[in-house]
Design a protein that fits this description.
This protein has 339 residues and is an alpha/beta fold. Helix content is 38%, strand content 17%. The chain has a nine-stranded mixed beta sheet with strand order 3-2-1-4-5-6-11-9-10, with helices on both faces. A two-stranded antiparallel ribbon has the order 7-8. The protein binds beta-D-ribofuranose (BDR) and calcium ion (CA). The site of beta-D-ribofuranose has 13 residues, from α1, α7 and α12. Beta-D-ribofuranose binds next to α1, α7 and α12. Keywords: Glycosidase, Hydrolase. This is Nucleoside hydrolase.
């Protein structure tokens, strides 16, 4: 079994990652916490609660932490994920409210209560994680593992020419997190799923059709580039319908940036790595996050060769297997939707 503490900024690909994790029998979702990023923290929490309820996991605690990045003003991205963060999907409003308690305290208490047992997964800006590390510097030793989605170590950003979104939103938090891990034994370093490998997890309409078929939807789930914008799914299974309505928005966004009618589902890959279901190779490196104001803020640089003479602070994913990820995602989301 894998016991996960998840911090996310739900977000279309975060929502798919949560649904994927909800469908993994061997995964215990200990708690899911909200960091502002794709949308503000309250909307992240609403989306997270709604997605968990949709997946039959209304029992998982959800809490809010920071409401803004450590040092820079919050930016959100309705153009990427839609005004509510979940594309064209209209999820039933959640029946629950978030926990009263603060997400950062929840992480620390959970890690202290179960030393060596929990894996941390962050698919959002690292604000909450940096605050948790400030309050409990032993977290790197308390966690069984840490998996992060963020950065672009080939310097091909998706937000600025060199910066990836999660690191762009809170570069100071990312710098603090890597500094906190520097010098840890290599097997304790965070596994980092950055753009050069997450953009290979490119979802296409045929994957949605395969998902609908796996869920046993009687009618074909047609997602075509020529469909008018905003066309809604008619799938009979609610999970397939909502996932399809989220993805249509994501497809249209990616098409705007000339990447084709596809969607990079970054956070699903990070979730599959954290769940231990996705194979990957990693390389240890000392990571620098540029925090100085200017064009390079949010840029991530990895020293793989020890040229800076600093100990490694991360294990950066260097190879992954997209076809395996898709068959796993289609199978598990299909089974969950049919349940
Ligand atoms: C990351 O940015 C967000 O928009 C996505 O949810 C993902 O976590 C990719 O750069
Ligand atoms: Ca995210």
């Amino acid at each position: 079994p894998v016991s996960l503490l998840v911090d996310c900024d739900t977000g279309i690909d975060d929502a798919l990652a949560l649904a994927y994790l909800a469908g993994q029998r061997h995964v215990e979702l200990v708690a899911v916490t909200a960091t502002p990023g794709n949308v503000d923290a309250d909307q992240v929490a609403r989306n997270t609660l709604a997605v968990l309820e949709l997946c039959g996991r209304g029992d998982v605690p959800v809490a809010i932490g920071a409401r803004r990045p450590l040092e820079v003003p919050l930016v959100t991205t309705p153009e990427t994920h839609g005004p509510q963060g979940i594309g064209y999907a209209e999820l039933p409003p959640p029946r629950r409210a978030p926990e009263e308690r603060d997400a950062v305290g929840l992480w620390i208490d959970a890690a202290r209560a179960r030393p060596g047992e929990l894996t941390a997964l962050v698919t959002a800006p690292l604000t909450n994680f940096a605050l948790a590390l400030r309050a409990e510097p032993r977290l790197p030793e308390l966690f069984a593992g840490v998996v992060l989605m963020g950065g672009a170590y080939n310097h091909q950003g998706n937000t600025t020419p060199t910066a990836e979104w999660n690191t762009h939103v809170d570069p100071h938090a990312a710098a603090e997190v890597f500094a906190a891990f520097a010098g840890q034994p290599v097997d304790r370093l965070p596994i980092v799923c950055a753009l050069e490998t997450t953009e290979r997890i490119e979802m296409r309409p045929e994957h949605v059709a395969a998902l609908a078929a796996a869920a046993g939807c009687a009618e074909p789930e047609l997602l075509r580039p020529e469909d008018p914008e905003g066309t809604r799914s008619r799938a009979s299974r609610p999970l397939v319908r909502h996932v399809s309505d989220m993805l249509r928005f994501y497809f249209e966004f990616h098409r705007l940036y000339d990447q084709g009618y596809v969607a990079h589902i970054h956070d699903v890959f990070a979730a599959a790595v954290a769940a231990g279901t996705a194979r990957c190779a990693t390389r240890a490196a000392s990571v620098h996050v540029e925090t100085a104001p200017g064009r390079l803020r949010g840029t991530t640089v990895a020293d793989f060769r020890g040229l800076w003479g600093e100990p490694p602070s991360a294990r950066i994913v260097s190879a992954n297997h997209p076809a395996e990820v898709f068959s796993d995602v289609v199978r598990s989301l299909g089974a969950l939707a049919a349940a």
